[in-house]
Design brief:
Blueprint lengths: L3 H13 L5 H11 L6 E4 L5 E4 L2 H19 L10 H21 L5 E3 L5 E3 L2 H10 L5 H11 L6 H6 L11 H15 L7
Antiparallel strand pairs: 1-2, 3-4
Helix pairs in contact: 1-3, 1-8, 2-3, 3-4, 4-5, 4-8, 5-6
Length: 192
């Protein structure tokens, strides 16, 4: 089980010891995840675009670890802000999950009753990830709790700018988002 009571001290002590930093996480992701893997996507002109997730994820991760380091310095006059990293990473989770499912050969578009093609909803992506074995039942429930109206509804609250106060952008929430991101990018994906 994922428990913040264990994770928060782990992140704080890891940061204090210099073992959990942007550089160590970046190096780990470059070697052990799909973040640095070059992907290809056809664009509307029929050309192929090549990309990695590095420039999309690393600025937010760098900001997270900058704020985490400031938290560990325990300056009385400092209030950390996780606004930038939470706003960025939260919204990337859906895209990373969608792409992971596509890499396994799963369709992430569906037709509605008018036969219009639509992207599968985020909730639908979580269900599909669970059905296909990309996420276990407990992992899918964690994603539902964190990102849907069954729980914290982070994706919707951030996407629609419902958070107006900095208190909503907490270290606790950032750690949960970080764990969700790590779960997606470090999962081995094989084409079925």
């Amino acid at each position: 089980n994922l428990r913040l009571g264990y994770l928060i001290p782990l992140f704080i002590e890891g940061s204090k010891a210099g073992k959990l930093t942007f550089e160590t996480v970046r190096d780990y992701l470059n070697q052990n995840s799909c973040v640095a893997v070059e992907m290809e996507e056809s664009n509307f002109d029929g050309n192929t675009d090549k990309y990695t997730w590095q420039p999309l994820l690393y600025p937010a991760l760098e900001e997270f670890f900058r704020q985490l380091k400031l938290v560990t310095q325990e300056a009385a006059d400092f209030n950390p802000t996780f606004v930038l990293c939470l706003d960025s990473l939260t919204l990337k989770i859906e895209g990373m999950l969608r792409e992971s499912l596509q890499l396994t050969g799963k369709a992430t578009v569906s037709a509605n009753n008018k036969r219009d093609l639509r992207e599968v909803t985020f909730e639908g992506l979580i269900d599909l990830a669970q059905e296909s074995g990309l996420l276990s039942i407990s992992e899918a429930n964690f994603f539902r709790f964190l990102f849907t109206s069954l729980g914290m509804d982070q994706r919707n609250n951030i996407a629609h700018c419902y958070y107006k106060l900095p208190e909503y952008y907490s270290l606790n929430t950032m750690i949960l988002i970080f764990c969700a991101m790590m779960r997606i990018v470090t999962k081995e994906v094989s084409n079925n």
